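Hi C.,

You asked whether I'd gotten around to modeling the 320-residue construct. I have! Everything is below, sequence then structure, no commentary in between.
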Amino acid sequence: MHRAAGVNCPRCGRAQPPDAEGVFCVHCGQFLVRTRWVALPPESAAGSTPPAERRGRYSGPPRYLSPPRWGFPALPWRLEKPATPPSSASIAAGHAGLLVPLLRGLALLAALSGAAEIWRYVLLLRSRGEALDAGQVAASDALVEAASWVCTVLGVAVGVYLLLWVLRVIEAAAERSGVRPARSRRMVLIGWIVPVLNISVPGSVLAEVEHAALGRPAGQRPRPSRLLLLWWALWAANVALSVFTVLWSLRSGVQARANGVELHALVDLLAAATAVVSAKVVLWLTALVGPPKSIPLPRVVSVREPAGAGRATASTVLPR
């Protein structure tokens, strides 16, 4: 062990105590032993590389004679450049990622509710000539009530989320085409919720979104695609039939109730078809307003003449 007794520290100038050992100042921690720099040839010129020294066992964090004065500032991590806010197209794509599975789940529940209504109607037909099992009637009633309530709650939630997606996709289509939306948010919400208006306005809004996303002239009349026309017809039929079913349920009588079961089954099946087509429309319009995808172009990496082919040449083409 190096004896540092009587040595004056080059930093603080204080002499070391008689019992001091080691190569560091006991007062400030300065290195006391004089060092000599020696230049050595690089490893390539020296020949064989010396064996790497084996690292010792970890003995814990380093210890300091005094509290260290260095460290990171007590601030949160910050980016060098301010983050840009997400665009309407990216927000619409994020909404679509959750909206499509919800629509497909709603379609399954609506189909299950329609099957329950059909089962109830079959039991009504059987009840005209025979006595029904109480267990079957109770199971049918429970299935109808549970499926209808769950389908209604999920339908309202999906409808609200669909409206959020529609508002974002309208803004994304307007940004993509460089024009202002033809309707304000208030007009879109009113046209989507108010009866009678919600038969024509939703289809018109989505047709305008498709028209703007495809880059067609702003003064040209929108021409919806076949997929959008199919969705529009299903949506209008579903709204009209739902209103008619609610009004029909106000009637009394055995035959009116039996016809009400038929109407409820038809509404559920039509809602399932509308939900399936709505998922396809959401995917279609989200892809239209999204950023264009780059297509890899082929590039020639080598050209050579094969043996025995004369003037014929062969080339290797790989995508970029």
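If it helps when you're writing up: The helical segments are 43-46, 88-126, 134-177, 185-193, 197-213, 226-248, 254-289.

Thanks,
B.
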